[in-house]
Design brief:
Glycerol-3-phosphate (1)-acyltransferase, about 210 residues, 7 strands, 7-stranded mixed β-sheet, single chain, 7 helices, alpha/beta
Length: about 210
Amino acid sequence: MANKFDYSSFRNYKFQDAIRPLGHFICKVILHTSYKGQENIPADKSPVIFCPNHISAKDPIVVAMGTKKRVHFMAKEELFKNPIVALLLKHNNSFPVSRGKMDVDAVKYSVELVNHGRDFGIFPEGTRSKDGKPKNGKNGAAYIAKKTGADIIPVAICKHNDGKKITVVYGKPIKNSELGFTESKSKSELNAATERIMNEITSLWEEELCK
């Protein structure tokens, strides 16, 4: 459960590296996943925030396996009710978030995680899209970007052939300086940044002929 997760420790488990060969096999052979735009992922150690659209429970796997970075993903707290699943998620650098409300612990953890140099993944929509099309985003990703100064990597996840093939497209980084952040606490500023992020994701998705 979320309240049992240690939000005070910013560990960077190597388990994700250890299972990478298996992950690549699953993505390529079982999920028929192909990748585009991997050259847009910065090779330096500066942390970035990966922002994909959300279509299935497999999304964190297919996004993480397309990069050499260890990506720390938020995961809905319901998944952590099973102790075995919780252990696997934890060692795969995932952490719980309570949906439908402002989860202060998870948000603070996300900010500190990035500030500690960890690469972070968050689905701006906050939930899966039933028809696979990107929807309106929530302000979580923009808020964390504002608090950390990290750049955003927009990611489009596209299903083809009734879900029998997946394409993951990594877009060019959205520089933090391009998101219009100021010292203001205005929600409109976060709204505008969220709209920019979702527009980039949607453009990538449409370019891949997913519509």
